[in-house]
Amino acid sequence: MEESKNVLPITQGVVPTGKLKEMRKRALEDPEGFWSEIANELYWKKGWEKVIDGEAPYFKWFVGGKTNLSYNALDRHVKSWRKNKAAIIWEGEPGDVRVLTYYQLWKEVNKFANVLKDLGVKKGDRVTIYMPMVPEAVVAMLATVRIGAIHSVVFSGFSAKGLAERINDAQAKVVITADGMWRRGKKLNLKDIVDKALQETPSVESVVVYNRLGLEVNMEEGRDYKWDDLMEGAKTYAEPEWVESEHPSFILYTSGTTGKPKGIIHDTGGYMVGVYATMKWVFDIRDDDIHWCTADIGWITGHSYVVYGPLLHGATTLMYEGAPDYPKPDRWWSIVEKYGVTTLYTAPTAIRMFMRYGEKWVEKHDLSSLRLLGSVGEPINPEAWWWYYKYIGKEKCPIVDTWWQTETGHIMISPVPGIELVPLKPGSATYPLPGIDAEVVDENGNPVPPNTRGYLVIRRPWPGMLHGIWGDPERYVRTYWSKFPGMYFTGDYAMKDNDGYFWILGRADDVIKVAGHRLGTLELESAFVAHPAVSEAAVVAKPHPVKGEAIVAFVTLKEGYQPSDELREELRKWIRDTIGPVATPEEIHFVSKLPKTRSGKIMRRVLRAVITGQQLGDLSTLEDEASVEEVKRAVEQLR
Ligand code: PRX
């Protein structure tokens, strides 16, 4: 790695203040003092007795403390000069605009909290939110935590089956949805998907349907209610439920190495403090900012940096409902110009897409309001980094490449302009944040020398850390805390360079990232095998110029089925319907046999090597060499 060449020119002349180093040192020496100072900037109904308690894999944060997330995100500001400040600026896909002040949002949340109570939702109950990117989705989230219930937001791109699976796992009592949503100018009926899912979800007692499109939807008497009808009669104030710091605030499902998605549990106090601190350090959030995080609220990035992070700071968060390039490839840049967006946080896959459309779409707009750019979700390749820096940031905005996960709750490794901006190197997330003890280790858990690939681990507890997998404590321990006892295993490969900068090198497990979306290979393979024609399936990722990674499947068929283009198309649709459009395979290859070891394990490594044209490596454990030849022929044929 040619480090010096890659150092960003604007920060080359920056004189180091040493503040970051000092803060990192202090946070590790006195974590309790360090985190309590930050926690004290927020409101606690009852103070904590202990900042961190327990030992791996079970930690508790701010033990004994009582607080409420919605109080901190809203009431605190409503009582201040921020009362009439914009909390949410929202633009719909057709161009309709809404602005909700802190006071207005607070009122909506209070009323909806009462609606939920009237539906019988109590502290600890689960509420599934399956909604488009509309302000009511945020209202639903905040109202849920206001009454001490637990939200589980399911990305609106998931299929009925995916939704049902998540509702059942959480045993949700209420589902909040909308009649429909815009998707590239077309109206998509969401309620139909919900109805389909609800055929197999006995725990659901009520459904609240927000009217986004005015569609005529099926309403089941005694189960389905219109949002507006319920809000009309709702009382205007709901006293926040003061919950214990470790009380779960939400569950968020993500993919792992097994077939079933895992419900990651986040607490209240620790999560709140972690998100609050990182919003300040990484985005250097200010009162006159218009912060735009482009993630959907169905992902952790949306939870932490569309909703909770900005609102905890009393900042203005921008939400956009539609597709990034609809109706034209300059939609995003027109939004930046129109509202004067100051901090833009997005994923490399979007940047690569805009790069392909070309600079002419960017140059139509005045982007001078931008002061900071962010990237998240997958490694950013230097070409995309430089393009983002040059054409979007006009060579004046630092880029914060932020590494973190659904499980970590908030940003863990990133430049921190809010503390001290260090020279940036395109493709490196720089250093762990203060208080984050990240390390790169070998198979035995020992730190590796500089410039050597190893596993990324976190050696100490951090505030926003996950607190288990919903309903599966054993999987929690096995997945995260067993590979290296006492350390949290991230599942990522990483490397540190001579300056101690971290470079994230991709997943070390069977998780793939398609356009920043996290998918498990086993989840995909199970979906293939559920089709009547499929006998076995192996899924691997191949590099993709825009999406980062794309899905390639190798499939063997059952007796009586023949490979054909129609079947290939049918399988593609099957996967879309089973998981969702994000999981649509790029290539499907039919083979008579998959390459396996003599003990019957599918050799995905060999499949990966074939599709990327790399050396096949050691084949001594392979059961049948002919299977590899067949895979090679299948790949050649289709390309
Ligand atoms: O592999 C890492 C990659 O995304 C994974 C986490 O995915 P998810 O839980 O969906 O959360 C994404 C948004 C926080 C990580 O294990 N990843 C995330 N950020 C980066 C990244 N890889 C490289 N660089 C990043 N900045």
Structure description:
- The chain is an alpha/beta fold and 639 residues long.
- It contains 21 helices and 29 strands.
- It starts with a helix and ends with a helix.
- Helix 5 (69-78) crosses helix 7.
- The structure holds adenosine-5'-monophosphate-propyl ester.
- Adenosine-5'-monophosphate-propyl ester (PRX) binds at residues 254, 300-301, 376-379, 401-406, 429, 490-492, 504, 507, 513, 518.
Give the gist of this structure.
Residues 21-73 form the Acetyl-coenzyme A synthetase N-terminal domain. With 639 residues, the protein is an alpha/beta fold.
Chemical compounds bound to the protein: adenosine-5'-monophosphate-propyl ester
Cα-atom radius of gyration: 24 Å
What's the end-to-end separation, in Å? 33 Å
Q: What is the residue-averaged pLDDT? A: 95
Categorize the overall geometry. globular
> Could you state the oligomeric state of the chains shown?
single chain
Extract low-pLDDT stretches: 1-5
Proportion of residues in helical segments: 25-40%
Tally of strands: 29
As a percent range, the share of strand residues is: 15-25%
Strand count, sense and barrel status of the largest sheet are: 7 strands, mixed
Output the structural class: alpha/beta
Number of helices: 21
Order of strands, widest sheet: 5-4-17-16-18-19-20
Key features?
639 residues, alpha/beta, 21 helices, 29 strands, 33% helix, binds adenosine-5'-monophosphate-propyl ester, magnesium, ACAS_N
Summarize the topology.
Elements: H1 3-6, H2 9-12, H3 19-29, H4 31-39, E1 50-55, E2 58-63, E3 66-67, H5 69-78, E4 86-91, E5 97-101, H6 102-118, E6 126-130, H7 135-146, E7 150-153, H8 160-170, E8 174-178, E9 180-183, E10 186-189, H9 190-197, E11 206-210, E12 224-226, H10 227-232, E13 243-244, E14 250-254, E15 262-266, H11 269-283, E16 290-293, H12 300-312, E17 316-320, H13 331-339, E18 343-346, H14 348-357, H15 360-363, E19 372-376, H16 382-392, E20 399-402, E21 438-441, E22 454-458, H17 473-481, E23 488-496, E24 502-507, E25 511-514, E26 517-520, H18 521-529, E27 534-544, E28 548-557, H19 565-578, E29 587-590, H20 604-612, H21 625-638
Parallel strand pairs: 4-17, 6-7, 6-8, 7-14, 8-11, 11-12, 16-17, 16-18, 18-19, 19-20, 28-29
Antiparallel strand pairs: 1-2, 3-13, 4-5, 9-10, 14-15, 21-22, 22-23, 23-24, 25-26, 27-28
The chain binds adenosine-5'-monophosphate-propyl ester.
Adenosine-5'-monophosphate-propyl ester binds at residues 254, 300-301, 376-379, 401-406, 429, 490-492, 504, 507, 513, 518.
